[in-house]
Amino acid sequence: MWHRLCIRQTGLSISAEEIRMSQSNTVLTGCLLPEATTGCLAPIDKDGLEKLIAAGKADPKVIKTLKCKTVAEGRFRHANYIRNLAPYIVDEPPGLLGDDTAPNPSEASLAALGSCLAVGLHANAVHRGWTVRKLELQLEGDLNITAVWGTGDVSEKPVGFTDVRVKVEMECDGVPKEEVDALISHVTKWSPVANTFVRPVNLEVALA
Fold first, then answer.
1. So where are the chain's domains?
2. Model confidence over 129-165: pLDDT tens digits?
3. Cβ–Cβ < 8 Å for 76, 89
4. Which InterPro entries does this entry report, sorted A to Z (predicted)?
5. Which end of the chain is more exposed for a tag (fewer CB within 10 A), N or C?
6. Domain 2-15+31-58+104-198 adopts which CATH fold?
């Protein structure tokens, strides 16, 4: 079943409307794939999840600082270094003078949102003892790019996404649609990236 989730600068809204769509031809890298023997998604470690839950309740005000180093490689291609992982590449499409080797920054932010929501849906499903057979999210966002990064039209206008739409397909054994709808609302409320989209964030950008 498809469920629609809409994110706007003014807040979150969720529709319980069911949407029929053709099945996606592409499976995102890192997406949970059904196990060949059961047809269900490989679940995360429930014991590990319970330990994270206990730690969060024991110290609910703890703050974790995440880090990323972005290095320009030439033209609009950038390598982003996070932890000890291979660099995460961000580029621009040809229409925006890039080489089309990777998602652009705005697309990457949609990917971050989709992944964060999927993590929350999976974690909450495991916590509730649900068996998940399929979990896919499709995202699209609207933005005005006529400012051309500040070199173009700089008249007063919203910069960045004004509307983001997320369609969630989640199949769980024996779980009514109403409960899945409620889960989506709950997960959206507690998603770090969804909250980053809709809540003011203190941002500091300065010369090193």
1. 2-15+31-58+104-198
2. 999 999 999 999 999 999 999 999 999 999 999 999 9
3. no
4. KH_dom-like_a/b (IPR015946), OsmC/Ohr_fam (IPR003718), OsmC/Ohr_hydroprdx_reductase (IPR052924), OsmC/Ohrsf (IPR036102)
5. C
6. GMP Synthetase; Chain A, domain 3 (3.30.300)
